[in-house]
Write a structure and sequence with these properties.
166 residues, mainly alpha, 7 helices
Length: 166
């Protein structure tokens, strides 16, 4: 089996596992708005097997940056095109400063997820629900990454090697 096919099959299994875990947990706790959690899981999971654990950690850190910026800008003003644009630029800036380049797309998605809310719902209720969903998705994806990565290479060894290179 080629390395490319092996990575594809592992990634497909990780994605399917992520969906199953999110659906199982949400049915267990009777939570129906699972979209943001699923998006977070998919953004944290990596198709490439060699740096999966370190990339998952980078994307989680980036998600925390995105969530934090989203909340900060919600304190500044209600969401409009200018506030959202400024929040996205701030998210990019912080990811650049913290060297989270590999997680920038995930951070931008987290910022948008937190800042947009449904009509008729209080902005802070929506933001809090989405913060929990995004962070839960990050945790689920990290656990899935560890489980699948331990099958091919010890995840902690991979993480240590990547930290030493940085």
């Amino acid at each position: 089996m080629s390395e490319r096919l092996k990575n594809f099959l592992i990634y497909a299994a990780k994605c399917a596992t992520g969906v199953l875990v999110v659906f199982f947990i949400s049915s267990f706790i009777h939570y129906t708005d699972i979209g943001w959690c699923l998006i977070s899981v998919m953004l944290v999971l990596s198709a490439d097997g060699k740096d999966s654990v370190s990339l998952a950690f980078t994307r989680i850190k980036a998600n925390v940056v995105g969530v934090s910026i989203g909340v900060l800008f919600l304190f500044i003003a209600s969401t409009n095109v200018w506030i959202l644009s400024a929040a996205l630029v701030a998210t990019l800036g912080l990811c650049y400063i913290f060297k989270l380049d590999a997680g920038i797309r995930s951070a931008l998605a987290a910022t948008i997820i937190i800042m947009l809310h449904q009509e008729g719902k209080h902005v802070w209720d929506t933001a809090l629900e989405r913060i929990i969903a995004v962070l839960a998705g990050c945790i689920i994806a990290l656990i899935i990454t560890f489980i699948f990565h331990f099958k091919t290479k010890p995840a902690l060894q991979d993480l240590k090697e990547n930290q030493q290179e940085a």
